[in-house]
Design goal:
single chain; 305 residues; mainly beta; 3 domains; 7-stranded mixed β-sheet
Amino acid sequence: MSHQLYNVQGLKGIIDLIRLTANAHIAISEFKVGVQLQDDTNVTSYPVAYLESDIESDVDGNSETFSVALSVGDRLPNDFTSEDLINGKTKTSQILDEIHYHIENLASNILVTGMNKFYYENVNQDSIVVCRGEFTIEIPRYTSRVATPYDAQVIDIGQNQTLCKPVTVIDPNNNTTTQVLAGQTYTVPLVELPVFEPAVVIDNVNGVTIELSSGETYTVNDIPDLYSMSFNYGVESESGITITATAEEAATYSAQALVNCSAVTYRKNSTVTTLPIALAVNDVLSVEITKNNLTASSKVVLTSL
């Protein structure tokens, strides 16, 4: 199954993911990042999703866990009643729950915990009700089995997908439009008509459009899976990351992309190696880098194509 997923990296990635999710919610009029909603006098539109900028993180091995506080606030009538207050708490709680749910499902490489919520009202002398939620987001400092964009698609590598768009066959003789996947075939039915109209094959894989006669067969070529591993280095002095390959990571990696790296050394099972690197299950891969800028984060991305 293919998923529209995002690969989240670092604090900016966390904030961008939450902003994207909140702005996509139909009920949210404004998204803001600040110290605390009750101290922010610049909120102009409600309901508002408010991410507190005081985000803590805990680094443990190859993962980093961010502690997040996200609030949803909404105005109450000037002469609000206790029922209005209950309805406002219910509404803001529901919106917050929905944003939290979509954060969990929008990114492929994060782990989102449950949420502790509490409610308050009357912020900045206005009649406002707020539901505030606290939760954590854990991301790996190196990521494989991540969603990788390919030709306008996003593929979940863990699903071992074949990376190609389906071939479309339009057959006017039986008024059918068929999607043929990689590795499959389509045979035009034998049709006895006064005038046979050729079936049209739109092959997005090879970039061709052809016509098939009655009884002809078209085979869609298979395309190898694309595997990707991203090794992410923080701003501290860390210069090496080691992984043990799983079944989902076993592949031959032939291309690299470097960010803030002047040099990179690969060691497979303790032996220095170069691209292409063929990883089998339980192979140990170490990626050691030399940074250009010691005060900035770095990244090494390996791909199989």
